[in-house]
Amino acid sequence: MTDSPIEALDLLDTDYTDILANSSLPSFELQLVKSGIDPAKARTTTNFIALMRQKPDTPEEWTALTEAWEAGCGFEPELEHLQLLVQLLWNHQKNGASDR
Q1: SS3 of 80, please?
Q2: pLDDT at residue 99 above 60?
Q3: Could you say which of 16, 41, 46, 56 would form a disulfide bridge with 29 (CB–CB 3.0 to 4.6 Å)?
């Protein structure tokens, strides 16, 4: 008999349900946990990646992205550096999408 996906992840049903219900990218977060990343770190990383996938336009979106960076990296980024990173990622996404 093979293990169920939850057993393979060594997660409680409630933890698995929490990821499915509350994660912004559940499949990514589950992959991180499956890779051995601590569930709390996986959630922090997932939140940051989800925010990076959207181009922040409002001050509130920039604040959320900055807070996610701080939670993941342990320090506040310089806004200019964060803006350059977002610009680089968004330009790459636009160029990649046009190549398809």
Answers
A1: helix
A2: no
A3: 46
DSSP letters spanning 13-65: HHHHHHHHHH-SSHHHHHHHHHTT--HHHHHHHHHHHHHHTS---SHHHHHHH
- What integer best gives the mean pLDDT of the chain? 82
Closest CA to 47 of 77, 17, 16, 24: 24
* Cβ pair 63, 77 in contact under 8 A: no
Asked whether the CA dihedral 91, 88, 31, 26 is positive or negative, the reply is: negative
Residue type, 74: G
pLDDT of 52-69, one tens digit each? 888 888 999 999 999 999
Residue type, 78: E
